[in-house]
Design brief:
single chain; alpha/beta; Rossmann fold; 2 domains; seven-stranded parallel sheet; six-stranded parallel sheet; 15 helices; about 15% strand; globular
């Protein structure tokens, strides 16, 4: 029995990365001592209810980061890099004291060095390279960081394996970090079987106003597009938004701004919906919309794209046909004109949606093929791959990255997609 620590500082964000974290915690706790490691106190019962998992055997360890000094635009905040580097080193020292056998870093953007005998770095997307800041404090902070925990490249190299959640992510890991990674698609829940379909278009994603390197779900784009489709609204179609709410003033203002645009009963919001409510929405929805990355250049701003897209996969498992933006990792999950549609602009979004809404035969065909296509993304496939990685490393054996990128992915022929 090994001591396995799974690190995710943002567990209460309750997004796709957190779903993957709790799925691993539940699974590995059946045979090992498992510790969820977070930077803030987390209510495990809330996570269990939201994700539909059993965390009774899992222990929570809270390792608070040193508090930030000032806002980033304040005089103090602009000079806090030295302080933050000390905080990163402090966090690493505390992780080492846990004496873990396996450390799984599933914290988005956190390049903490591997503090245990075995390290698995699960990259949701590599950190964006930034130019070197000038000035004596920045130089001192950079030199201190290298002395205490190494450069970002050094820290990544301490892990036995780096995994990528898509081939899109793997490409940028190689471009930016100059290292190979194993493509392990994230854990998607099977939300089926489908219920009798209703005239519902669904979008699932966190309501967030965070900008910068983070990708936004672009609910405002979808809302505006739907409100212009008066023919569908008159025919009884509805748009439903579901997702967790960012607990900041900006996030709440963003959500309230969306709600303020809605009149009548054609648009509905399901904020912080639980696992059963969300599954019910997937099962009765006919069409799934997704716009993450829209309006941002995938080459210039790859971190702002959808790196894989778990929610379209979960929608497909319940027979909802995805109509999603053609960017990032989404073309890996949706086969255009077979299991769904990939759109380039809002005119295409509207056109593909109308094709599905007005052609029952087309919808039925694409819905059934969407259900067939998702087995390679489901939780069982993800956990099987993680089992193989952990067990191989615990035995002291080497992993061959050539086994991963495409070997376990079923082809469209295998899936009977025509």
């Amino acid at each position: 029995m090994a001591r396995i620590g799974i690190y995710n500082y943002g567990l209460m964000n309750r997004g796709g990365g957190e779903r993957k974290t709790v799925a691993m915690a539940e699974h590995f706790s059946k045979a090992h001592d498992v510790f969820l490691i977070s930077q803030s106190n987390v209510d495990l019962a809330t996570l269990e209810a939201y994700f539909g998992v059993d965390l009774d055997r899992v222990k929570l360890i809270v390792l608070p980061h040193l508090p930030h000094v000032g806002e980033s635009n304040s005089p103090v905040g602009r000079k806090r890099s030295l302080y933050d580097k000390l905080g990163a080193a402090f966090q690493y020292a505390r992780l080492r004291k846990l004496s873990l056998d396996v450390f799984i870093n599933n914290a988005s953007g956190d390049t903490t060095p591997n503090p245990s005998r075995i390290g698995i770095f699960m990259c949701m997307f590599p950190t964006v390279p930034k130019g070197k800041a000038n000035g004596p404090i920045a130089t001192l902070a950079r030199n201190l960081e290298r002395t205490l925990i190494g450069t970002p490249e050094d820290r990544i190299a301490t892990y036995n394996i780096v995994t990528a959640n898509s081939r899109f992510t793997a490409y940028w890991i190689k471009e930016w970090w100059k290292c190979q990674s194993a493509v392990i698609y994230s854990s998607a829940e099977n939300m089926g079987p489908p219920l009798p379909k209703e005239k519902i278009i669904l979008n699932v994603g966190r309501f967030t106003a965070v900008k910068g390197d983070n990708h936004l779900k672009r609910q405002e784009i979808l809302l505006n597009a739907f409100l212009k489709m008066t023919d569908l609204i008159d025919a009884g179609w509805q748009l439903h938004f579901a997702g967790s709410t960012e607990q900041t003033e900006q996030g709440r203002n963003y959500l309230n701004g969306l709600k303020d645009q809605v009149e009548g009963g054609a648009v509905h919001f399901h904020c912080d919906a639980g696992a059963e409510e969300l599954r019910d929405l997937y099962r009765k929805s006919s069409i799934y919309w997704h716009a993450t990355g829209f309006g941002s250049d995938p080459q210039a701003n790859p971190s702002q794209q959808e790196h894989l897209g778990l929610t379209p996969i979960e929608a497909m498992s319940a027979g909802a046909v995805p109509v999603v933006v053609r960017s990032g990792g989404l073309p890996e999950t949706v086969i255009h004109e077979r299991t769904g549609f990939l759109w380039n602009d809002l005119d295409e979004l509207a056109s593909y949606t109308r094709r599905l809404a007005n052609n029952d035969t087309l919808f039925d065909q694409m819905s059934s093929q969407a259900v067939l296509s998702v087995s390679r993304f489901e939780k069982r496939a993800f956990l099987d791959r993680m089992d193989h990685i952990v067990n191989t490393l615990l035995k002291g054996e080497q992993l061959d990255l050539e086994d991963y990128p495409d070997a376990y992915l079923k082809s469209t022929r295998d899936l009977n997609i025509t």
